[in-house]
Specification:
By secondary structure, the protein is mainly alpha-helical. The protein contains 13 helices and four strands. The strands form two sheets. A two-stranded antiparallel ribbon has the order 1-2. A two-stranded antiparallel ribbon has the order 3-4. Helix 4 packs antiparallel against helix 7 and helix 6 packs parallel to helix 8. The longest helix is centred in the middle third of the chain and has 29 residues. Bound molecules: benzoyl coenzyme A.
Length: 334
């Protein structure tokens, strides 16, 4: 169904017959699985949808540094500190690839950051929850990076070339991130009773927020139908959430931890687990700016931007002087 349809200005998805010649040719390229590249013609709504999603994705990477960065100075060993430092640094790199991918669509990084700082653009809901102790760093790697990979693996096949290529590299790094988190959880779960209790508590607090990372249920997902028609998204929010649960339950069992869901049950017929939905009211509160850490996270990003102003100004002044010198040298040589 999706492959036959493209969005109108309204919420409806149009059939091929209703499209202009340009739109139809574009849709047919997408349907054939061709990648769309930056300089090629694309519908304005496709471009805007990508800027929204890639921009939010980039913001998630850099805001996502904050809850983990908070624990670098308190990592329990030098080895754990070095690993966490590398991971948090990777997230900055992911943000960079993604901002670059968004820039190919004609938006500047400064514009995207201004939208983040003014609260007009979102970032992943998960980073509005606090990391209270070391076990949370394990849970973030295991569950948050685990959920992120589940989503990003399919995004490697997304129709926009620069986004797809950024995802291929990011997925490789994310799998290291997930393993480092699981490794922390293994250590904690096999440690003292107090360490195991901390691991269980971290799982209890991060389980439902991790399920929310996949977005609202399909019935409430505003963008899915159009984004799937354009192959920006390959799977629905609910499909990915189900895959994540099916993958994670055996991992929790291996750790000897209990997923905090009384309704969790293997369903032979569907070949997957039945599970409880997260609290969607809480999700909408969080994405509308009212989660436990929204103000703190945004405040930290705005402060970093302000604190870095002198450095950006210095770089710009240097670039301007260098350009003026090059121009003067060119005139002198003529
Ligand atoms: N959080 O129509 P829907 C990481 C919004 S970071 C906040 O289903 P869509 C990591 C959605 O934007 C990885 N907002 O939307 C980093 C829309 O609002 P707007 C982050 C959410 O776009 C550091 C509205 O709800 N991954 O791995 O079709 C350390 C309706 O939703 C969320 C990505 O960003 C949410 N969870 O589907 C550790 C992946 N969910 O824009 C780890 C890329 C929904 O109309 N993004 N909303 O105001 C996507 O795949 C899709 O955008 C989503 C949502 C599946 C998230």
């Amino acid at each position: 169904m999706y492959a036959q349809m493209v969005k109108t200005d309204a919420d409806r998805v149009r059939s091929l017959d209703e499209m202009s010649a340009h739109e139809r040719a574009f849709q047919e390229r997408v349907d054939r699985g061709e990648k769309i590249e930056p300089k090629e013609w694309m519908p304005e709504a496709y471009r805007k949808t990508l800027i929204r999603q890639i921009g939010q994705h980039a913001h998630s990477e850099i805001v996502g540094q904050l809850p983990e960065g908070n624990w670098i100075t308190r990592a329990p060993t030098l080895e754990r500190k070095a690993i966490l430092l590398a991971k948090v640094q990777d997230e900055a790199g992911h943000g960079l690839y993604l901002y670059c991918a968004a820039e190919t669509l004609g938006v500047s990084r400064d514009e995207l950051l201004a939208l983040l700082h003014s609260g007009k653009m979102k970032y992943s809901s998960i980073f509005n929850y606090p990391t209270l102790n070391w076990a949370d760093i394990g849970a973030v790697g295991w569950l948050v990076d685990g959920a992120a990979i589940m989503n990003q693996v399919q995004l490697q096949k997304t129709s926009y070339g620069p986004y797809s290529r950024a995802m291929i590299r990011i997925c490789k790094e994310e799998s290291f991130h997930q393993r480092q988190g699981y490794d922390i959880m293994m250590k904690m779960a096999a440690g003292s009773p107090e360490q195991k209790r901390m691991a269980q508590d971290a799982l209890n607090r991060f389980w439902y927020p991790s399920l929310m990372m996949f977005g609202p249920s399909d019935a409430d997902s505003v963008h899915s139908a159009q984004s799937m028609a354009w192959k920006i998204k390959i799977n629905t929010n609910d499909e990915l959430r189900q895959k994540f649960v099916d993958q994670t339950v055996p991992q929790a069992k291996y750790l000897g931890l209990t997923i905090p869901d009384e309704n969790l049950k293997w369903n032979e017929e569907k070949g997957g687990y039945d599970f409880s939905e997260p609290d969607w009211d809480e999700f909408f509160e969080v994405i509308n700016g009212n989660g436990p850490c929204n103000k703190e996270r945004l405040g930290a990003r705005v402060k970093a931007w302000e604190d870095g102003r002198w450095f950006r100004d210095g770089l710009n002044a240097h670039a301007e002087k260098a350009a003026a010198r090059r121009a003067a040298a060119k005139i002198a040589a003529e």
